[in-house]
Design a protein that fits this description.
By secondary structure, this protein is α/β, with parallel strands linked by helices. It is built from 14 helices and 14 strands.
Length: about 350
């Protein structure tokens, strides 16, 4: 049983929507998804997957605690895996059940009151697992299992051309792409400053910035774009349920985050064979071998980001392709579906035996 309590889509929800169906197709595993009714993540799950709805209105929703306990009592799962603080706090295994509670964390969240009552914990990076152990969780029940991304389907050239026309991006433009929630820690204001410092053309080709995502900073970032006089070559796409065509439209991907425990977007960019420029977050340090499969600059330094982008842009498509291929190799070797799902199943089997 896999329980997630958020309404919007973000990194954890995107992983959930990939992982739960993949697990259900792995060697006969029987999986039940538990989400909030009407949540966006529920809409991404396949129709043949067993789904249950629990309101999970807040981390203090006692009625949902009871509902989850009843589901566990009725369905008797071996494993109950929860995602993020709300679902984990609300999940209390009944004494009559033999289920093991696994809490999966994708960030450096507060442990007390939310996670400590679980039986085992999964962190998607070494730094996160080290944090969990420093918080006093038993090391023998803290597991490091990374994320995976699916190989994308190809995008027809006609669709890419239609998107360029729709967003008024010239056919010969170089496109820089970034993706994420429009919140302070994602660093989009730094990206805008860096982009404003770049020339309007590289090698005679116009330079455009495309950002997909939505969030509370939407209006503020739009105002900053206008103040920097880059609105004519910046495109805000809003939230995109299907991002593959946008990745294929782009030439270079940028992750400007000020804080990123792992960075699913980096893996997604590599899967789409895009070169990646990222800020020096915990997640980027774990994923990127600098100058090999990506480029890394200091966080919160738009000037350094602009300098790195300028160097990469002037290096040309051959350099872009080399970085992109090294990134794609990293995904195939360490972040494939089979490898990650296999690690989870092995962990489940070990926990149940124990």
């Amino acid at each position: 049983m896999h329980i997630i309590g958020s309404r919007e889509l973000g990194g954890a929800e995107s992983f959930y929507s990939r992982f739960v169906p993949a697990l259900s197709n792995f060697e006969g595993q029987e999986v039940v998804a538990v989400t909030r009714p009407g949540a966006m993540v529920a809409q991404t799950l396949p129709s043949d997957l067993t789904c249950q709805g629990v309101p999970m209105r807040s981390g203090w929703d006692l009625a949902s605690v009871v509902s989850i306990r009843r589901l566990i009592h009725r369905l008797r799962p071996d494993i109950v895996q929860t995602y993020m603080g709300r679902a984990t706090r609300l999940t209390r295994i009944p004494r009559s059940a033999s289920a093991v509670h696994v809490a999966r964390l994708g960030g450096f969240y507060k442990i007390d009151g939310y996670y400590r009552h679980a039986d085992a914990w999964v962190g998607n990076s070494k730094a996160l697992c080290d944090y969990l152990i420093r918080e006093g969780l038993p090391a023998q029940r803290v597991y490091r299992i990374g994320n995976f991304v699916e190989p994308p389907a190809p995008t027809p050239a006609s669709l890419i051309g239609a998107l360029r026309k729709q967003y008024e991006i010239p056919a010969d433009a170089i496109v820089l792409f970034s993706l994420g929630r429009l919140i302070p820690k994602k660093g989009f204001s730094d990206l805008l400053e860096a982009f404003a410092a770049l020339p309007t053309h590289i090698g005679g080709r116009p330079l455009f910035l495309v950002i997909a995502g939505d969030g509370p900073l939407c209006t503020k970032l739009a105002s900053q774009t206008a103040a920097l006089s880059i609105e004519h070559r910046t495109r805000w796409l809003g939230w995109q349920m299907q991002t593959t065509p946008i990745f294929h439209l782009a030439d270079i991907f940028i992750c400007p985050s000020r804080d990123e425990p792992l960075g699913n977007v980096i893996l997604e960019a590599w899967a789409h064979r895009l070169p990646v420029v990222s800020t020096d977050t915990v997640g980027a340090r774990e994923l990127i071998q600098a100058e090999d499969n990506g480029l890394v600059v200091a966080t919160g330094r738009p000037d350094e980001l602009a300098g790195c982008l300028r160097s990469l842009l002037t290096a040309g498509p051959t350099a872009w392709h080399r970085l992109a291929e090294r990134g794609a190799h990293t995904v195939r070797a360490h972040h494939s579906r089979a490898a990650v799902v296999g690690c989870y199943v092995a962990m489940y089997e070990g926990l149940v035996r124990r």
